[in-house]
Amino acid sequence: MVESPSLIQIKGIRDGLLITLDGASWPELVNAFVKNVDERLSFFQGARVVLNVGLNELRVAELSTLRDQLSERGITLWAILSESSVTETTAQNLGLATRISKPQPVDFKVAPEVLPEDAAKWVKGPLRSGGRILFEGNVIVMGDVNPGAEIVAGGSVIVWGRLRGVVHAGAQGNEKAVVCALELVPTQLRIAGEIAVSPKKQAKSQPEIACLKDGQLVAEPWHK
Q1: How many other CB atoms sit within 10 Å of the CB of residue 203?
Q2: Residue 86 burial (CB count, 10 A)
Q3: How far is residue 120's CA from residue 99's CA, in Å, rounded to a whole number?
Q4: Are 223 and 208 in contact (CB under 8 A)?
Q5: Strand, coil or helix: what is 1?
Q6: Average pLDDT of the chain?
Q7: Where does the chain have alpha helices with state H?
C-alpha cells in the first residue's frame, strides 16, 4: 500500500474519512491533497470527508473552492475541524459541520453463544450499492461487491469476485483477519484499526490478499 505524503494524514472513522492537513501553507496543502486524491481516485470516490485544518484561517472562497474540487471528484466535504474561530465561522456559513462524534467501535448484536473461530456467513452475490453485511465472524461473498456496498466482519472477508466496495475486517480488533478477492480494488479497506490507501490500479489484475504486517496494511498476490 502507498503511504500518504507527510502533509496529509488519513484515518477511517465511523462517518467516513478524517483527513488532517498541516505543516505547510494552505495553497500547498490543497495542491498536495488534490494531487493525492487524483492519484487514488478509486479510494476516495463516494467518501464523506472531515477535514482537520488546524490553525489555518480560511475564508469562504478558500473553503468553497476546495469543496467544489472534491464534489467534482465524487467526494462529499461535510465537516471542518479547526482551532481557528475564523475558519469555524466560515465552515458554519457554508453549512458544514464543525463537530463530529467520537469514533465508536463496531457494536455487533450479542449472539446467543460464542461463535467458533471458523464461523462464516455465506452470501450469494453480487452485493449491490446500498447493501450492507454485518457479521461477528467471517464473511464469504460468491460474486462482486460493488461500489456503495459495505461489509463489516469480526473475522476475515473472502470475495470470489471483484471487491470495489467498503470492507472492514477484524472490526472488533482482530489483527489476524485478512481480506481476499479475485480483484482487490476497494473504495475503502480496513483491518482492525488500520485503514488502507489504495495503490494505483495495475494494468493486469490478479487475486490478492490484504493483511496486517508489522502494523501496516499490505496487499500481496493470493496464491492457493
Answers
A1: 4
A2: 12
A3: 37
A4: no
A5: coil
A6: 83
A7: 26-39, 41-44, 60-72, 85-93
**What are 80-107's pLDDT values in tens digits?**
999 999 999 999 888 888 887 654 455 5
Three-state secondary-structure class, residue 154:
coil
22 vs 6: CA distance, rounded Å:
9
Length of the chain: 224
> Where would I find the beta strands (DSSP E) of 55-178?
76-82, 120-124, 132-135, 138-142, 150-153, 157-163, 166-169
All three cell numbers of 87: 475558519
Q: How far apart are CA 65 and CA 192, in angstroms?
A: 35
At which residue does the C-alpha cell 465508536 appear?
Answer: 104
What's the grid cell of residue 90?
466560515
Domains and CATH numbers, the chain: 8-93 (3.30.750), 120-221 (2.160.20.70)
Q: Tell me the C-alpha distance between 123 and 141, whole Å.
A: 5
Distance of alpha carbon 15 from the chain centroid: 10
pLDDT in tens, 130-163: 788 888 899 999 999 988 788 999 999 999 999 9
3-class DSSP state of 175: coil
Q: Measuring CA to CA, which residue among 64, 74, 66 is closest to residue 34?
A: 66
The three grid cell numbers given for residue 119, joined into one nine-digit string: 464461523
